[in-house]
Design goal:
Layout (H helix, E strand, L loop, with lengths): L4 H12 L8 E7 L2 E8 L2 E4 H11 L16 H6 L1 H15 L6 H9 L3 E3 L4 E3 L7 E6 L3 H6 L9 E5 L19 E2 L2 E7 L15 E8 L2 E2 H4 L6 H4 L6 E8 L10 E6 L2 E7 L7 H8 L9 E4 L21 E6 L3 E6 L2
Parallel strand pairs: 6-15
Antiparallel strand pairs: 1-2, 1-5, 1-12, 2-3, 3-4, 6-7, 8-11, 9-10, 9-15, 10-12, 13-14, 13-16, 16-17
Length: about 325
């Protein structure tokens, strides 16, 4: 679904309401048929690669042949660049942010393509082609209870094979899916290669956090013992609108989250109800599997899913679903 500029303005304001001031919000955006990595700052999007080039030339007085490759134009490349790229990114943003309030400097940034007006771009999902998506099932005590399941003794890990969609994009329900369900989840993104990581050091491997809707075809999920197909229907993974850097979230186990369809609050919980914390999940998975930068791991959903309601409550075309997580903004998608 194409969003007009007026709708983008409204959506941008909506997304910014629940974010802490000064949070670094990394995004992937599109404009003029280009897809690029940026950082939302007030009413602007700072283009990471072009702002870095601007910083090199104007602050460090680097020559015209100086390479801007250290900060790539795509967010996955930024994550794969490691600590050196993140350090360059922080320096770039620290240099650029004060210039946004200076009209002459802002004009120069806009002319260089280093800054865009937020209302003129379309925000996509932060990682349109992640390294992979892993998910955790039955990771909230109250959700396990409402599902009639035993509390797991270890994280229940499965994969989602569909590509994520972003804010404002449609979740499309195929005619063959009769029980489409919603699952609001906290997701985190791996920032550096992780293998045999201790629980104490696990959060050091997190690049940042975002909202994730693990949309699920319950009828397909339950027709066999494997979940992948029911969890991987095209468009059944909505993520965004931002990747908020790890340091901006003091404790991922103390976040309020909510699911709203229309005027109906369907899920309302706190990540403190998780059975396995973000650190637990990383420590467990990396005993067996090396996690690469750009891997999305979504941490399970709280109680209130449609399949456990009486009567059961499925998603329907024409509805809009809104997910909120404290400090991470708002993710809203129409249902088609």
């Amino acid at each position: 679904m194409r969003i007009g500029s007026g709708a983008i303005t409204w959506l941008a304001l909506l997304l910014l309401q629940s974010l802490p001031a000064g949070a670094t919000k990394l995004v992937t955006y599109s404009i003029y048929n280009e897809v690029r990595a940026g950082a939302v700052e007030g009413d602007f999007v700072i283009d990471l690669n072009r702002a870095y080039a601007f910083y090199l030339f104007n602050s460090l007085k680097a020559g015209p042949r100086a390479s801007d490759d250290l900060v790539p134009a795509d967010l996955l490349g930024v994550l794969e660049g490691g600590d050196a790229t993140l350090e360059a990114l922080h320096k770039t943003l620290s240099y650029t942010r004060p210039l946004l309030s200076q009209p002459d400097e802002l004009d120069r940034l806009v002319t260089a393509g280093a800054v865009r007006n937020l209302k003129n771009v379309k925000l996509l999902t932060p990682l349109p082609r992640p390294h992979r998506i892993l998910a955790i099932g039955l990771n909230y005590r109250k959700h396990a209870e409402e599902s009639g399941q035993k509390i797991p003794v270890a994280p229940e890990v499965f994969s989602k094979e569909c590509l994520p969609i972003g804010p404002g994009e449609a979740i499309r329900i195929p005619k063959t899916v009769k029980q489409p369900d919603y699952e609001a989840e906290l997701a985190f993104v791996i920032g550096k290669t992780a293998r045999d990581v201790s629980r104490e050091k696990a959060l050091e491997y997190v690049a940042g956090y975002m909202i994730f809707n693990d949309v699920t075809a319950r009828d397909i999920q339950r027709r066999g013992s494997q979940w992948v197909l029911g969890k991987s229907v095209d468009t059944f993974a909505a993520a965004g609108p931002y990747l908020v850097l790890r340091d901006e979230i003091a404790d991922p186990q103390k976040l309020e989250l909510k699911t709203i369809v229309g005027q109906e609050v369907l899920q309302q919980a706190n990540t403190s109800d998780m059975i396995f914390s973000v650190a637990d999940i990383i420590a467990d998975i990396t005993q067996f599997l090396t996690l690469q930068p750009g891997t999305i791991i979504t941490t399970g959903t709280p109680s209130g899913v449609g399949s456990s309601r009486k009567p059961q409550r499925w998603l329907h075309p024409g509805e809009r679903i809104r997910l909120e997580i404290q400090g991470l903004g708002v993710l809203e998608n129409p249902i088609e």
